Amino acid sequence: MSAVSFVDVEMVFRTRERTVRALDRTSLEVPEGQFAVIVGPSGCGKSTLLTIGAGLVTPTRGEVLVGGRPAQGPGADRGMVFQSYSLYPWLSVRRNIEFGPEIRKVARGERRRRSDELIGLMRLQDFADAYPKALSGGMKQRVAIARALANDPDVLFMDEPFGALDALTRQVMQEMLTDIWQRFKRTVLFVTHDIDEAVFLGDVVHVMTVRPGRIREVIDIDLPRPRTFETLAGERFAELRRRVLEVIHEESLKAVESELTALSA
Amino acid sequence: MATVSQPAPAPRRRGFAATYLSPKTAISSRSLLVLAVAGFAVILGLWTLAAILVDNPFFVPTPLAVVVAWVDMIATQGFLVDIAWSTFRIVGGFALAALIAVPLGLLMGAFEVARGFFQPPINAIRYMPASAFIPLLILLQGLGEEEKLTVIWIGVFFQLVLMVMDIAHRVPTETLSVAYTLGASRWTVLRKVFLPATLPEVVDALRITMGWAWTYLIVAELVAATAGIGYVILVSERFLRADRIIAAILTIGLLGLITDQVFALFSRWAFPYVEKVHE
Fold first, then answer.
1. Does the beta-carbon distance from A133 to B275 stay under 8 Å?
2. Do residues B20 and B107 both lie within one domain?
3. Is pLDDT above 50 for B111?
4. Residue A74 to residue B181, Cβ atoms within 8 A
């Protein structure tokens, strides 16, 4: 059974001037324990799809199933990591991580055990009692991921989590994420516009079309795990990367063209 | 580029222009201190010069005469009682305004419903000067303390409520969204995320509006009062005591500075986690 599935999800934004069809009958299934990546040109509605999945936005039509049951509104079963970290600056690293368990009234000892484990995994030991202002971007995002994992969600949505990081930090974070994912085997739906990132992380890459957004192609990534930076140098990686790139490139061209026609109209 | 093992090189002397006239380049804290002292010295110098040139202590007393007057006011004129009255009015009027403005502003920033209802009238009233209400308030409330507290209340409340609303409105949506995906209810999000996210800036807003409160206080005391710093200023004018007027004005400046520092210290103590971009 799929951990999460989107069934004919349609999203239409209406402003006074115009109507934008962000998602057009999009269907997508993520099996239990899979690391799924959505990649697509900017403005294709991939982030919208995630916020719908997390229950933060109600779709115009269609529904989201979690473990086969329709999900309504946000909940602790679906965690979310944003590009902007969105840490709580008034809480220490540890209390940020314990925020979810705390509001769900998990016992103090159990909370502590979980945050200790995640702080160790994320190599944040020296900063457990620091405020977020003392952390670098990469560390902040590690706290945000730990905070989401501390809640033990069925599905973890990640919306371009490494988009604000420099290239070197990003590579380190990707390796760290694959490590942690192999340990936890959570179902992940990860959105990015970085093709290398998509191929490196995913079991499967869904390529999205431009507005109206739709899944255009699903590419299986059969790279062996564990994946390390050496994976990036492999031949198979280059092939898969090329395939994703071809589809994306076509879509990006379409996006530019449709913008041009919109401008000339 | 020096390597790590070498001792730190002595700072190279640069030319005057390179040191002081490069845009947005920091200068030493000693230079800043010298400049700050110089700023005061120039003002005092110009003031003394003006006093000598005008040569009429009724209109332009020397700085020294003002200090003498200030000591005399405190020692023999009961100026401390006036200061106490003014402080009481300020604190009272300001507290009454903040007590309502802060919760209402937070509510307006959080809920469109509250904003839609309250913002238009508050926006309109904000442009009506607090001082213009004084005659009306005297008619309604007489010349007692209520009238003075109300003037300050009007001056502070309508500004503060909109500032707090803006602060609350600027809380990033994602900050709240994350809490929902961690299992928080709406009430929990309001209490444990929204409120703490706004607090440091709300204290900043209080600090700023506290400064404005002094303006309204003095206006209220100039129009109708039997005690207070504004009253002292008015009486001093009748007796041609420019030295006392200036001493009273400087006293207000000093009290303002103290209040400001108290707020700053409180902020640093209560919100150690805030990233200070500029102190």
1. yes
2. no
3. yes
4. yes
- Cα–Cα nearest to A213, from A54, A52, A34, A31: A52
Tokens of B104: 């209402």
**Looking at this predicted complex, what is its ipTM?**
0.90
C-beta of residue A82 within 8 angstroms of C-beta of residue B178: yes
* Domain-located, residue B29: yes
Taking only Cα atoms into account, the Rg of chain B, rounded to an integer number of angstroms, comes to 25
Sequence-ordered list of residues with C-beta below 8 angstroms from that of A101, at least 6 positions apart, any chain: A110, A111, A114, A115, A150, A151
| Residue spans of beta strands (DSSP E) within A49-136 | 61-66, 69-70, 78-81
Q: Are B110 and B177 within one domain? A: yes
- What is the residue range of B96's domain? 66-270
Domain match, B99 and B172 both: yes
- Provide the pairing of β-strand A187-192 with A155-159: parallel
Q: What sign has the CA pseudo-torsion A82, A88, A94, A100?
A: negative
Q: Write down the domain spans for chain A.
A: 2-77+155-258, 83-152
Asked whether the beta carbons of A211 and A258 are under 8 A apart, the reply is yes
Q: CATH assignment of A2-77+155-258, given 3.30.1330.200, 3.40.50.300, 1.20.1050.10, 1.25.40.390? A: 3.40.50.300
- Domain-located, residue B155: yes
Tell me the pLDDT tens digit for each residue of A129-187: 999 999 999 999 999 999 999 999 999 999 999 998 999 999 999 999 999 999 888 89
Pair of tokens at residue A126:
């020296």
Nearest to A124 by CA among A139, A112, A136: A139
pLDDT in tens, A39-73: 987 777 888 999 999 999 999 999 999 988 998 89
Q: Tell me the count of A-B CB pairs closer than 8 A.
A: 72
State both tokens at A53: 């999945």
B11 occurs within a structural domain: no
Chain B residues with at least one Cβ partner in A under 8 Å: 172, 174-175, 177-184, 188, 192-193, 196-197, 199, 271-275
Are residues B81 and B214 both part of a single domain? yes
Domain count, chain B: 2
Tokens of A27: 């269907």
Q: Are B72 and B42 contained in the same domain?
A: no
